């Protein structure tokens, strides 16, 4: 079985260092501790999946890395700099697509480049390449309302890739898609990652998706979220979700996640 605890120590090779991060919301009797003493080190080119039940702080942690909502205590260091705000080295892909409805596919993809003032020549080259890479060429003049969920998410991914950030943060980007579309986009994302070797942090509820995509899976506990296990996934690619090796890891992770899911269910019954 290709599964082992991942114990990467903080060092100069870490592209992202998450150090003793806490996140607290509210005041007084309404205080909620979302994250508690999170420590994760991520090297360049890793594909790290954050896995856990609802309420474990996966999206909260991703937003902290993005610079949208800073930690209450502790620090997050990206490429040697403490994160204090969003930055161009971090691109975010959301579950809800976040496309501009008044722009067609081509202009949605090019939006960030237009804001940066990139030349028309570069804009055309980059957009054309991404349209081809993500199978969007025949949809270039269509508007988001005319696209399926899968196509909208392809456009959202292309828009981030157009800015070429070394780090991609992805918050359950395939969670609302049907199984066939989800697998197609998973494979597309893996092809992009294998070619570019960007660092990807990917939030998911799906154990199978985490194993299929990740070089590592970090399992978070139910609130307050902390690292329950940090596991290296060493199955060769392409990965077969029906293989014995894949399913052995799936069972191991399933036990870990279900323990935290039970805590979530117990808390809901208590009205917490």
UniProtKB/TrEMBL annotation:
<comment type="similarity">
    <text>Belongs to the ABC transporter superfamily.</text>
</comment>
<dbReference type="InterPro" id="IPR050166">
    <property type="entry name" value="ABC_transporter_ATP-bind"/>
</dbReference>
<feature type="domain" description="ABC transporter">
    <location>
        <begin position="16"/>
        <end position="247"/>
    </location>
</feature>
<dbReference type="InterPro" id="IPR027417">
    <property type="entry name" value="P-loop_NTPase"/>
</dbReference>
<keyword id="KW-0067">ATP-binding</keyword>
<keyword id="KW-0813">Transport</keyword>
<dbReference type="InterPro" id="IPR003439">
    <property type="entry name" value="ABC_transporter-like_ATP-bd"/>
</dbReference>
<dbReference type="Pfam" id="PF00005">
    <property type="entry name" value="ABC_tran"/>
</dbReference>
<dbReference type="InterPro" id="IPR003593">
    <property type="entry name" value="AAA+_ATPase"/>
</dbReference>
<dbReference type="InterPro" id="IPR017871">
    <property type="entry name" value="ABC_transporter-like_CS"/>
</dbReference>
<dbReference type="GO" id="GO:0005524">
    <property type="term" value="F:ATP binding"/>
</dbReference>
<keyword id="KW-0378">Hydrolase</keyword>
<dbReference type="GO" id="GO:0016887">
    <property type="term" value="F:ATP hydrolysis activity"/>
</dbReference>
<protein>
    <submittedName>
        <fullName>ABC transporter ATP-binding protein</fullName>
        <ecNumber>3.6.3.-</ecNumber>
    </submittedName>
</protein>
<keyword id="KW-0547">Nucleotide-binding</keyword>
